[in-house]
From TrEMBL:
One MF annotation (Gene Ontology) recorded for this entry: ATP binding
Subcellular localization(s) per the UniProt record: Cytoplasm
Keyword Cytoplasm among UniProt keywords: yes
Residues annotated to bind ATP: G149, G151, K152, T153
Protein's UniProt name: Chromosomal replication initiator protein DnaA
Keywords: ATP-binding, Cytoplasm, DNA replication, DNA-binding, Lipid-binding, Nucleotide-binding
Region listing for Domain IV, binds dsDNA, in residue ranges: 324-444
Length: 444
């Protein structure tokens, strides 16, 4: 703090811009109230965040990582840390680089949702994290791979948190950070200290291994891997492809990586996406008064937005932003417009309004013509509303389009039907089950 100004540092330019755009006024106000400071300056840190060097043998058991802490608010932008180029400022100490900065507090086993596509990876990660300290590792290295946004980093950080909670010394590094540390060590003639720092830990967690390049780097990584594994320490690695496809890697490194347990995280299936969305939206609602995402919207997102966790985060963040900035409550209509650009271009099975009319008519023993007619008897009105609801949630058709397909009705009639059924599903378990059955029948 200097005179009337306070300087706050953040690890990335992205974070600086985000805070500047969204929180600077609030921050300035709080500082003014607390200390009379009139100006808040944001700067980007150039060196590593930690100041306590990692002391090999007698350091307190702790967890260290190079990713920034993200306050547990899902309103924050999607986590994607711009990676540091593997060139280090001369002032960076190798031991500091090996230590890195804290982990993302949200990425734990408690917040990881398990489904068909990630059961094995989750079980293996848990097993590794919860092994008795000192016991010989069961799967070593544990190698997890998946396409982007399917939960690799989340699982790796969960391993790191859980391992540290059990008293293990865990280091979490991306491959880039590993390279950065090595270059820093070479520059400051402290390569031995760097190696010692890394080799004295219990669990080494390396993320984004596909970015490990350069012969020297690979050699160094291979030595570290061998040293740790030969000493019975656990190594956990994640990459965007299996070891056999890491073309840039030396054969020896590849075979060492493939020699433990290799598990894949598949694209998140719809049920899992729905579950993740539900969990996230609950925590968003807790953090932002007045923000609520109806279940029909969550279903719509689970069905139509992409198959990665990042797509889901993006969709919810978009709804939150629109809700906060315009005050518009989250409805199917609002969501449809807000996430238009995030909707998958081609759905594996395109549901047609005709399929819905056929299935609903058969199920309720009415005719297709009844559903499209102007008749208002109860035995026709409810199936018609259910059919409209299904048309809205299972297809990408707009309300006016659906109105036209249902005997030329107005879009407000469709909206009324969608809201009505949505409300009933929340309180009527039997109806909710019935609609699930209809959805399955329509999808067949
Ligand atoms: N099973 C899950 N349960 C809860 N959240 C999940 C799950 N899978 C993914 N996510 C969330 O999706 C987002 C992206 O996940 P993550 O960063 O772990 O992906 P990744 O596989 O490491 O991707 P990349 O290769 O791009 O680094 C995160 O917010 C993460 O918490």
């Amino acid at each position: 703090m200097t005179g009337s100004a306070v300087q706050l540092s953040v690890p990335t330019r992205f974070l600086k811009a985000w805070i500047q755009d969204h929180y600077l006024d609030r921050l300035s106000e709080l500082w003014r109230e607390e200390s009379g400071t009139t100006r808040v300056d944001l700067v980007v840190r150039t060196a590593v965040a930690r100041t306590v060097p990692l002391k090999a043998a007698n350091a307190p058991r702790e967890i260290v990582s190079e990713r920034p802490v993200v306050a547990p608010t899902a309103a924050a932008p999607a986590r994607s840390q711009p990676v540091a180029a593997p060139t280090a400022p001369a002032s960076a100490q190798p031991a500091d680089v090996a230590a890195g900065s804290p982990l993302d507090a949200r990425l734990t086993f408690e917040t990881f949702v398990v489904g068909k596509s990630n059961t094995l990876a989750h079980a293996a990660a848990r097993q590794v994290a919860e092994a008795v300290p000192g016991a010989a590792p069961l799967f070593n290295p544990l190698y997890m791979h998946a396409a982007v946004g399917l939960g690799k980093t989340h699982l790796l950080q969960a391993v790191a948190w859980a391992g540290a909670a059990r008293g293990r010394r865990v280091v979490y590094l991306t491959a880039e950070r590993f390279m950065y540390g090595f270059v820093a060590a070479l520059k400051s003639h402290a390569a031995i200290a760097f190696k010692d720092a890394l080799r004295s830990i219990d669990t080494l967690v390396i993320d984004d291994l596909q970015f490990l390049t350069g012969k020297n780097m690979q050699q160094e990584f291979c030595h570290t891997l061998n040293a740790l594994m030969d000493a019975g320490r656990q190594v956990v690695v994640a990459a965007d492809r299996p070891p056999s496809e890491l073309d840039a890697l030396d054969d020896r490194v590849r075979s060492r990586l493939a020699g433990g347990l290799v598990v894949e995280l598949a694209p998140l299936e719809e049920d899992l996406r729905a579950q993740i969305l539900k969990t996230r939206s609950v925590s968003l609602s807790e953090q932002h008064r007045g923000f609520a995402v109806p279940s029909a919207v969550l279903e719509f997102l689970a069905r139509h937005v992409g198959t990665s966790g990042r797509d889901l985060d993006g969709a919810l963040n978009k709804l939150l932003a629109v809700n906060k900035l315009t005050g518009e409550p989250v409805t199917l209509e609002m969501a449809e417009t807000a996430v238009k650009d995030l909707v998958r271009p081609c759905d594996p099975k395109r549901v047609r309004v005709d399929d819905i009319l056929r299935v609903v008519a058969k199920h309720y023993n009415v005719t297709r013509a009844d559903l499209l007619s102007q008749r208002r008897t109860a035995n026709v009105v409810k199936p018609r509303q259910i059919a409209m609801y299904l048309a809205k949630t299972l297809t990408l058709r707009s309300l006016p389009e659906i109105g036209r397909r249902f005997g030329g009705r107005d879009h407000t009639t469709v909206l009324h039907a969608v809201r009505k059924i949505d409300g009933l599903i929340a309180t009527d378990r039997a109806l909710a089950d019935e609609i699930e059955t209809l959805k399955r029948l329509v999808a067949e």
